[in-house]
Amino acid sequence: DARVTQTPRHKVTEMGQEVTMRCQPILGHNTVFWYRQTMMQGLELLAYFRNRAPLDDSGMPKDRFSAEMPDATLATLKIQPSEPRDSAVYFCASGFAVGTAFSGNTIYFGEGSWLTVV
Amino acid sequence: AQKITQTQPGMFVQEKEAVTLDCTYDTSDQSYGLFWYKQPSSGEMIFLIYQGSYDEQNATEGRYSLNFQKARKSANLVISASQLGDSAMYFCAMREASSMNYGGSQGNLIFGKGTKLSVKP
Fold first, then answer.
1. In this complex, do B37 and A109 lie within 8 Å of one another by their Cβ atoms?
2. How far is B106 from chain A (nearest CA, A)?
3. Residue B101: its pLDDT value, please?
4. In chain B, what percentage of residues exceed pLDDT 70?
5. C-alpha distances in angstroms, A102 versus A85, B31, B86?
6. Which pLDDT tens digit goes with each residue over A9-68?
7. How many angstroms separate the CA atoms of A108 and B48, rounded?
8. A61-101: per-residue pLDDT in tens?
9. From the CA of A116, how many Å to the nearest CA of chain B?
10. Are the Cβ atoms of A55 and B103 closer than 8 angstroms?
């Protein structure tokens, strides 16, 4: 059963520390999204990649956040330095897009990384 | 202006009854897709159903159906024969095809604020 895999599932860290979240998209998917979910803001897009190229990271605070896809099987989201306001659930999602359509019309989410910065 | 509006923060339904979760959207695109996701208390986001703007028939997936009214820009989720396990947050989302081209700035799912559904035994 193919699924998007995210690590870590839970992370508690101190303010100022670096946090790296990892995502393994479903094999063969060429589009990867990073979302952040908070009670106040709901689900916000941070970044998305198509064929490993970043297409949009306008939702990401550039001074402390960075997103990369070192290869087709790994996407990373890094926060350095972390702050208490970064506490949230971070979701990775993937899909296979051809032009403007997604195969199967589905975008699958991982189980999320629950981050707490104290 | 919000692209996706879910006006019901919370809903209650009796087990075995049907329930409709509202979703309205705003787009000037002719081509777009509408999604519903379920988020149980465990936190994962589970894809439920998809409706394309050119699909003539309402989408159905088991007990889930999407009441798509294009002129009214609404895409309500109908859950038939509610079960206790249906208690969760439900999110409506939209993807606009015009923003999916390379270099587009919004080629992503735009989510509503969600509706918390509680199924009563």
1. yes
2. 7
3. 46
4. 89
5. 33, 13, 27
6. 999 999 999 999 999 999 999 889 999 999 888 898 899 898 898 887 778 888 999 999
7. 10
8. 889 999 999 999 999 999 999 999 999 999 999 988 766 55
9. 15
10. yes
Q: Does the CB of B63 have a partner CB in chain A at under 8 Å?
A: no
Q: Write out the two tokens for A12.
A: 């508690």
Distance CA A48, CA A61 (A): 14
Which residues have a Cβ under 8 Å from the Cβ of B83 and sit 6 or more positions away?
B15, B16, B119
Going through A1-118 in order, the beta strands assigned E by DSSP cover 5-7, 10-13, 19-24, 31-38, 42-50, 53-56, 65-71, 74-79, 88-95, 97-98, 101-102, 108-109, 113-117
- The verdict on B11 touching A (C-beta cutoff 8 Å) is no
CA dihedral sign, ordered A34, B38, B112, B120: negative
pLDDT tops 60 at residue B99? no
Q: A77 is written with which tokens?
A: 């989201």
Instruction: Look up residue B89 and give its two tokens.
Output: 């947050």
Answer for the pair B61, B7: CB distance below 8 angstroms, yes or no.
Answer: no
Contacts for B71 with CB less than 8 Å, ≥ 6 apart: none
